[in-house]
Every structure is written in structure tokens, then in C-alpha cells.
Design a protein that fits this description.
Layout: H1 2-18, H2 23-34, H3 45-77, H4 79-82, H5 95-131, H6 140-161
Helix pairs in contact: 1-2, 1-3, 1-5, 3-5, 3-6, 5-6
Length: 162
């Protein structure tokens, strides 16, 4: 179970660089990493570009979530080193309380982000099968578009708040 989740998360993080590789490589990686075959059918330049854009957009979102999971874990566990003031923070007014709350939140939120990355890896596989492999899972394309667009909006909002 954990191995499959880890492989899906790794596949999601590989999706961004894979978007710039040959079609043969894009089809080989799911077979080797996820043990899921993807057969090429009706591959054209347009399908290759569509798969690159969708895979790259969702891949960027996966990398953003990976960065956020590391950030939330490090900031939670090392709260006294990164905190400016803790009197009005969650768990305050003492440093021990604020540190405990932020550490627990970091330890709880990071695995949720990793799970989301793994789910995005499964979506990447479905998008690849739909666009390059001739699978009839039409729903994967709009979901990938919505995720990529909402990830871009979330990133812009996150940048403006720091």
C-alpha cells in the first residue's frame, strides 16, 4: 500500500520533466515505475502537445505541493527558529505551546499533501492513457485542466501573501 502511494507520488513529480521527453519514454515510465502498461494509439503531434501541457500543468502543482509539505513540516518542527513572535500565535502565549501546535499541524498536514501528490500521480497516468493510449476516460482531461488552473491561482495567492 505505502509502496504504491510512494510510486504514484514519484510518478507525479516525474511528470513535469517527462512532459518534455519523447513519447516512448512517457509510455515506458508508467510501465516500469507503476507497473501499469500504456499502449500508444493514434499518437500525433497535437496529442503529444496536449499531453505535455496537461502533464506539465498538473506536474507543476505536484511540485508546489511537495514544496509546501516540506515547508510546513520544517516550519512546524523548527518553529522556535523561524518564529518572529509567538505570543499571539496558535498555541501561544508560551513558546512551548506554540511550538507544540505548529509541530502537530506540520506532522498532520505534510502526509495529506503527499497523499494529494500521489492522487495527482494516478491522474497523470489516466491523462497519459487517455491522450496517448486511446483510453476513453474523457473526465481526466477537464480535471487536469481545472487542477492546473486552480494550482496556478493558488500559487499566485500564496506568493502575494508572503
Amino acid at each position: 500500500m505505502i509502496g504504491a502511494v510512494a510510486r504514484s507520488a514519484i510518478y507525479e513529480l516525474l511528470a513535469l520533466p517527462l512532459a518534455f521527453t519523447r513519447v516512448r519514454t512517457r509510455l515506458r515510465v508508467p510501465r516500469l515505475l507503476l507497473r501499469e502498461p500504456v499502449d500508444a494509439q493514434n499518437v500525433s503531434l497535437a496529442r503529444c502537445l496536449i499531453q505535455s501541457v496537461l502533464s506539465g500543468g498538473v506536474g507543476l502543482l505536484g511540485w508546489f505541493l511537495a514544496m509546501l509539505s516540506v515547508l510546513v513540516l520544517v516550519r512546524g518542527l523548527a518553529y522556535p527558529l523561524v518564529a518572529d513572535g509567538y505570543e499571539n500565535s496558535w498555541g501561544g502565549p508560551t513558546l512551548v505551546g506554540a511550538w507544540a501546535v505548529h509541530a502537530v499541524l506540520g506532522v498532520l498536514i505534510a502526509p495529506v499533501f503527499v497523499g494529494m501528490i500521489a492522487l495527482f500521480g494516478r491522474l497523470q497516468l489516466r491523462v497519459t492513457r487517455t491522450v496517448l493510449g486511446g483510453d476513453r476516460s474523457w473526465w481526466a482531461i477537464p480535471i487536469a485542466l481545472v487542477l492546473a488552473a486552480s494550482g496556478a491561482l493558488f500559487f499566485v495567492a500564496w506568493v502575494h501573501q508572503i
